[in-house]
Every structure is written in structure tokens, then in C-alpha cells.
Amino acid sequence: MFWLLLYLSLKSIDCGTAPPQFCSSDTRPLGDAINEFALNLYQQMLSDLTDPVNDNIFFSPFSISTALAMTYLGTAGNTATEMKDVLKYPACVHPLFKALLTALNVPNNDYTLNAANNLFPDDGFMIEQEYRNNVIQFYFATLKELDFENNSTVAREYINEWVSNHTEEKIPELLQEGDVTALTVLFLVNAIYFKGDWLNKFNPDLTEPATFHVSPSNQIQVEMMYNQSTYRYYEDNTLNAQLLELPYAGEDISMIVILPNDLDGLSSLEATLNPINLKAALNELLYPRSSTHTSVQVWLPKFEMKLRYKLKEYLQALGMVDAFNFGADFSPLCGSCGVFISAVIHEAFVKVNEEGTEATASTGVVINRGIKLFKANHPFIFLIRHKKSGTILFMGRVTTPNDSGTSNQSCLTKIPCPKKRKGKLSRCCGCKYMFADPKTKRIMTPKAMMRKYKGRKCLEGCIHRKCIP
Ligand SMILES: *[C@@H]1O[C@H](CO)[C@@H](O)[C@H](O)[C@H]1NC(C)=O
Ligand SMILES: *[C@@H]1O[C@H](CO)[C@@H](O)[C@H](O)[C@H]1NC(C)=O
Ligand SMILES: *[C@@H]1O[C@H](CO)[C@@H](O)[C@H](O)[C@H]1NC(C)=O
Ligand SMILES: *[C@@H]1O[C@H](CO)[C@@H](O)[C@H](O)[C@H]1NC(C)=O
Ligand SMILES: *[C@@H]1O[C@H](CO)[C@@H](O)[C@H](O)[C@H]1NC(C)=O
Ligand SMILES: *[C@@H]1O[C@H](CO)[C@@H](O)[C@H](O)[C@H]1NC(C)=O
């Protein structure tokens, strides 16, 4: 069991950009929203642990919330309402994300912190122009078209390379086989990378093997770091825990460790912790009314872990249901396109040692089309069957389709679908086979063509049009 609750707190965020009118650039409401969602998600992860005593948890609430906010931007109706409720998004959420992303990405000499967003649409997927503009404006996302439909393996490898590039190779395979398919129309992704040295580094000479009480009956040996210095420190009665702030150089970012008073106190801490008492405890720790720093002897184990989550079921349990169903309302993203979220994938890595901390995470949202694709563009078997008796009347395989007996490729003149009918655009559906009269170039139905040319020359001007829904 992991007795530390890690919390990367962001202090004093500098809001660099002026968001649109009527939106304040104070990013704290967004911080509160992400934190509340974080605790709810933590509870979901907790209830799903294979081994509740021994299993660790590590994830990036910021990364998950950002990737889902870009998705939320493309939703409407009940789909949007549910996402807003589960993710606790405040008013002006998109301008606030812009302000937060701007603040996080300000270059500095003390530590490395980068957050990047990207969209990978299938090259045949039409994204509404307004959505495209907004996701670029608010999330600094770039769009890169990939060909999921033709070869999703190539697309997957490209995305994994992008994520790997933005996580210092710590997350080389966010997408495993089958996570994206030929049905994928859009992949939205966030990646965050942080590397910082402790303001007070631990002296490696003082690191020693020590006992760690996983549970009252299970003790293991770990590499325990040690230092004595002055820190922000607070004892919280509600949480029955000690809180300690370990700042990183630059003092914009710090780790907060919440250590239960009792050796086996983690589960009662987890049961008690909520957004209100966490915020209260952090306020007491970081903005105390009286004394500020306390002299503390600190023992902290070195650790490193990487965890991967599929978040769909957790998000559904929290109330985000519609977005995962056929019939989700993604009209701002792509009109009436019948798409839905098929998966939300998260992976996070953290390494803590005497020098400092390296932490990185990536979240991907897979959007698939609701229509199944059946593309017989490779050899297949076919049967012609009498339904009532079940008898196979004919059977065959097609390896080299050959319709030269009935048509002539060079006659396949491209003719646009009939466009106007009483001022209305008529759909192409239904004009499966249309024929252009070789003499007049007029479009004719197969029947009219057969009548006119008695079936003989009909095929000379035949065009085969795909049904475009
Ligand atoms: C499919 O992708 C391969 C490379 O992965 C390419 O050579 C081929 O032309 C593509 N086919 C289509 C129909 O786009
Ligand atoms: C996809 O592309 C990869 C690499 O170019 C190739 O190995 C694989 O056979 C292709 N798969 C399909 C279904 O075309
Ligand atoms: C990853 O980084 C390498 C090296 O900078 C670059 O050549 C490559 O294009 C990047 N790949 C992606 C998908 O961004
Ligand atoms: C502990 O932190 C203090 C304060 O920065 C530092 O001066 C000291 O060198 C550290 N001690 C050890 C043992 O690393
Ligand atoms: C296609 O069918 C035509 C007519 O039946 C025949 O003459 C031709 O040899 C066939 N071509 C192939 C590649 O099978
Ligand atoms: C197919 O069309 C071309 C060009 O119109 C013509 O030269 C050729 O004879 C035609 N072939 C058949 C089999 O009709």
C-alpha cells in the first residue's frame, strides 16, 4: 500500500493572456474544478484496484481534464451537460484553459514544465470550421491528419511517437494494438511533462535501506531519503494526518505529502478526504495565519512507477454516459456525424529521488464513427442462399473481381450527382447506378438506358456511383 498521496500544487499562476470579454483570467475556479474531479476519479480508481492493500495509484488530473475539455468543446445537449457535471467545468472553461496552458508553458530556468495538445483526425473526417478555430485558439492544439481508415497501425505508431516525443520517451506506447481502428475518426491528446529539482535536495549519502509498513502484517525494505530543514508543515485533525510541502526550485511548484498519523491510516484518510477538507488543509499548510516554516526531519522513500488506465468505466460511473453511446451529440464537432467516444486512455509516470522529481502523463480520447465499415477491397467468400430452406445455391470466392464482361473502364466518365430538385439539394443516396447517355451526356436510369439501347450499347456510358450518406 502506498501511504503517500501525491499532489502537485500550482501556486501563483500568472495569467498571461486576456481571455474573451466577460471571462476573468483568474484560473483558480478551474483549479478547483480539476481538483474536485481528481478526488472523484481517485475514488473510482480506488474501488477498482485489484489489490486494495498493495496497489499504487498515479495519474494526472490536469491531463485528463484538458483532453476531455477539448472533447467537451465539440459536444452539445445532454452529452455536454453530463460532461460539464462530471468534470465540474466552471463558466468560461475554455478561456480559462487557455490562461492555464499559457501559464504552465512559460519557459523558466528552474524547472521544465510543458503541456501540449494535439488532434489527429482521419483524413476523410470533416471537422466544423468553428470547432477547428476554437480548439486552436483555446488549447493551442495543432491538427495533423492521419489515415486511420486505410491503415490504423501506421496512424497508431505516429501518435505514439508524438506522445513519446512530448513525454521524454517515458510513455512510448500510449496506444496499444486495437485502441484505434479503421472506425476511428478523431484522436484528441494531451501530454504533460514536468521535471524539477528539489529546492532542498536530499543528500544521497544519507539515503539508507529502511522498513516501509505496507500494512501491519507486511513490511518491506526501501531506499529511504532523509533531510532536516525548515518546511511548511501542518497537522490536520480532520484528516488525522500530517501535511508537508516539498518545494521544487523556482517555488512555483511543490509536492505535498499527506501522511496519515496511523501506520494503517490510509484507507480512513481516503474515506475522509473531500474537495472541501483538502482545500482547507492545503490553505492551512500553504497560507498559514501565523508562523510559516517549521523545522522538520523528513524521511521519504525513493520511488518510481508507471500506470495505465482506461477511464471509460470510471467516467460512466461518475455520470458521463451519453458521450460514450451511439447517438452522442457531437454536433459542434462535426454536424450530424454519428460519432462517440470509444475510449479514454491515460498513462502516467513518476520518479522521485534525491535530486527531485520527473513526472509525465498523457491522455487520449478516441472518437469513432458509429457506422460499421464493410469494405470488400480484398479477397472474400460469398454465398447465394435460399432463405427458407437455408440451402446454399451458389458459393464462391472473389480474388480478382472482373467485370470487364459487362462494362468498360474507360467509359466511367465522372458525372456529378443530380444536384438540384425544386431548389433542394438531393442526396446522392439511391443513385447507385446511373448512366450517362454516350450521345447526349444526359444522366439516365438503367431502365431508360436499356430501353434506348436495347441493352447492347448501354454499358458504354455506364458510371457506377458510390452512395454518399
Ligand atoms: C494506404 O496506405 C499505404 C501506406 O500505408 C499507401 O501506400 C496506400 O496508397 C494507401 N491507400 C489508400 C487507398 O490511401
Ligand atoms: C499498414 O502499414 C504497415 C507499415 O507500412 C504494414 O506493415 C501493414 O501491412 C499495413 N497494414 C494494412 C492493413 O495495410
Ligand atoms: C519526434 O521527434 C523527432 C526528433 O525530434 C522528429 O524527427 C519526429 O518528427 C517527431 N515525431 C512526431 C510524430 O512528432
Ligand atoms: C537539507 O536542506 C537544507 C536546506 O536547503 C540544505 O541546506 C541541506 O544541505 C540539506 N541537507 C541534506 C542532508 O541534504
Ligand atoms: C475477365 O472477363 C472477360 C470476359 O469474361 C475475359 O475475357 C477476361 O479474360 C477476364 N479477365 C481476367 C483477368 O480474368
Ligand atoms: C472500351 O472503351 C475504349 C475507349 O472508349 C474502346 O477503345 C474499347 O474498344 C472499349 N472496349 C470494350 C471491350 O468495349
From TrEMBL:
Q: Which residues form the signal peptide?
A: 1-15
Instruction: Kindly state one GO CC term assigned in the UniProt record.
Output: extracellular space
Kindly state which keywords UniProt assigns to this record, in alphabetical order: Signal
GO MF terms here are: serine-type endopeptidase inhibitor activity
Domain (Serpin): residue spans on this chain: 39-401
Q: Which family does it belong to?
A: Belongs to the serpin family.
Protein name as annotated: Serpin domain-containing protein
